[in-house]
Amino acid sequence: MSNNKYDIAILGTGLGGLVCGYILSKNGYKVLLLEKNAQIGGCLQTFKRFGVKFDTGMHYIGSMLEGQILHRLFSYLKLAEAVPISQLDKNGYDVFSINGQTYRYASGYEQFTEALCESFPNNSKDIRRYVQQLREIASASPLYNLRKVEDNVFIEADYIKTSINDFIASITDNTTLQNVLAGNLPLYAGVKDKTPTYIHALINNFYIQSAWRIIGGSDTIAAALARHIRDFGGEIRTNSEICEIVCNDEKATGVTLKNGEQVEADYFISNIHPQATINMIHSHLIRKVYRTRILNLENTISNFTVYIKFKERATPYLNYNYYFYENEDVWTANNRRKGDPLKSYLFMHQCAENHQQWAQSAEMIGYMHFDEVSQWADTRVGHRGDDYTAFKRATAEHYLDVLEQSFPGIRSAIEGYETSSPLTYRDYTATKDGSMYGIIRDKSFPTQTLVSQRTKIPNLFLTGQNINSHGILGVTIGAALTCAEFLGLNKIIEEIENE
Ligand SMILES: Cc1cc2nc3c(=O)[nH]c(=O)nc-3n(C[C@H](O)[C@H](O)[C@H](O)COP(=O)(O)OP(=O)(O)OC[C@H]3O[C@@H](n4cnc5c(N)ncnc54)[C@H](O)[C@@H]3O)c2cc1C
Fold first, then answer.
1. Is the minimum distance from the CB of 479 to ligand 1 under 6 angstroms?
2. Regarding the domain delimited by 5-83+216-297+451-497, which CATH topology (the fold level of the hierarchy) does it fall under?
3. Is the pTM higher than 0.90?
């Protein structure tokens, strides 16, 4: 038993755990963060191959101009200076190739509207209405505007109970425009007739205002947060896998680590996926109904990624993200099944410095369901066998063939590549089946698929992408919601305002 008793033990050091660690240690709580991996950060982790660093789960961020929401949050978290960023092309930060035609999203509401009106001159009214509604949805949420709240107001019910495709169809009859408006759905792994409108609206509104790459890797975010937590007196321990959350008859009392060590605390915040968290609790305090509800929630799809290192000065740097859809219906992308050819992907160059001329590296991400790799489900990183290596190689070669069709000659610019599969994400972040964004929100079951930061154990809370929403903004706001259980939301908003 450790002699150190902490006010709050935070289980996992993903973005949610780190932001909670920052807010609570800044406010005088004695916090301990426990991470199973050697590297902190969860999806903010990076790895090095061929001498370059690759991101694994944070490729671009939005709203980073002075006064915009993420800039305000980054200022509060003392990240604004610690994390260098580079703005994506204002005339087209997201470029879509859909059924052979190219479209672009431009930065700024007016520019976004004009760019789409160029492609759809007969739909300018629809496009304006879309932008106006997006702004209305986003501005209605006090949380996403850092306004003080009376109670836990989130977002208007209509936008929780309407699917994205229905919302977009209510804006325009033009099916091509509908698909372009839904074109960046890999950012939230949207599911037709299921994913609620607010997820799309908050994310699009976030990126339309301004879109940025993180220079030199997303681990800079994790490293800066960790530095601040330690400066505030907090502790972070890596290689500390938690196996059990121990409870007495009333509350949680400690956690047991894989090496048998026990750590005590007054409160616990789990940044581990809620399903994995529940599986670590054997107490009667977690009733069967709650356990079953959480364990039965469906998770978003996973992905297969090719991490590409280019030869020196072999390919110009693309200052935009490229979304490819072979067919017009972008919603069919996540129907891809075992053995199906790749018909959609997201391709992004990585940024090593501002005003970059040549690309050093890139990532090509395609959806993949876990069943494609389930035959290796019982294996672990680095020991999955030759047939798995052959599967990854064949999949990557197929991806690169498809990429070559949009970027002729790109194959000859490649020095080497690495890959990751749903198993990689499962093993590095402990999300079910390597799910990218955690639990799927369903407009037909809005309350059942929304996981609260509160659990049935009074001193155990949750944080991370399954609370509130995923992504840099969703997780940071979710962490504020979790910390509000200790400090009150308005106090946190006040602290942010005073930065
Ligand atoms: C491929 C991909 C691309 C993405 N791109 C973007 C993007 O461009 N922009 C954006 O804003 N968002 C992006 N996201 C989403 C974003 O990365 C996530 O929503 C966010 O980082 C998740 O943070 P989290 O706090 O929920 O925790 P996670 O990152 O899931 O971290 C959970 C942590 O808990 C640890 N843990 C798990 N089990 C245990 C245990 N038993 N004991 C101790 N520790 C444990 C894990 O090791 C991990 O460190 C992307 C995600 C993916 C997968």
1. no
2. FAD/NAD(P)-binding domain (3.50.50)
3. yes
